């Protein structure tokens, strides 16, 4: 389940921006994300089954542009998920395993696809006063329902995701740093020689 949660996380910010023509509220959210990149934000990821929390992880996201995103898990285990030019790499340091492959059909739910696409979006609604966006996404993994809470700065601060199997994942985003300077090799992985590589 952890791997499914991880992939879901990588599509997360994408889900808040339907491709249909936005009103002023949605346009402000779009513009803020675009004008903030490259940005960095701290995250907490929580997974619930029947309202019982079974997993909590935290770390840092670096969003550079439409083709480069890194989720760096710091607690309780060190893991890194990198998406770069349509390829993903997921390194589990504790198990010394690297899973990699092409993002493929999943790209339809990635943030840059929804930000810059003119295709009709999934069923959605929004409330500017409550600063919330609700989405219902039908994909290969079944139906997902998302509720996104946007902060006063028009950046997402909380996302609640419910899947068809009644697993709820909550993402909390804090401490955005906008227009950051990326270090050389930010989206490259330095791996030990004995790493186990799994092609997916």
Element order: H for helix, E for strand:
HHEEEEEEHEEEEEE
Task: Outline the low-pLDDT stretches.
Answer: 111-121
* CATH topology group: outer membrane lipoprotein receptor (LolB), chain A
Q: Separation of termini?
A: 16 Å
Q: What is the CATH superfamily classification?
A: Lipoprotein localisation LolA/LolB/LppX
Structure explained in plain terms:
This protein is mainly β and 200 residues long. It has a single domain, classed as outer membrane lipoprotein receptor (LolB), chain A. The protein has three helices and twelve strands, in the order H-H-E-E-E-E-E-E-H-E-E-E-E-E-E. Strand 7 and strand 8 form a beta hairpin.
In short:
With 200 residues, the chain is mainly beta.
What labels would you give this structure?
200 residues, mainly beta, outer membrane lipoprotein receptor (LolB), chain A, twelve-stranded mixed beta sheet, 3 helices
Question: What's the SSE blueprint?
Answer:
Elements: H1 2-11, H2 24-36, E1 39-49, E2 52-65, E3 68-75, E4 79-84, E5 87-92, E6 97-102, H3 111-116, E7 123-127, E8 132-139, E9 142-150, E10 156-163, E11 167-177, E12 196-199
Parallel strand pairs: 6-12
Antiparallel strand pairs: 1-2, 1-11, 2-3, 3-4, 4-5, 5-6, 7-8, 8-9, 9-10, 10-11
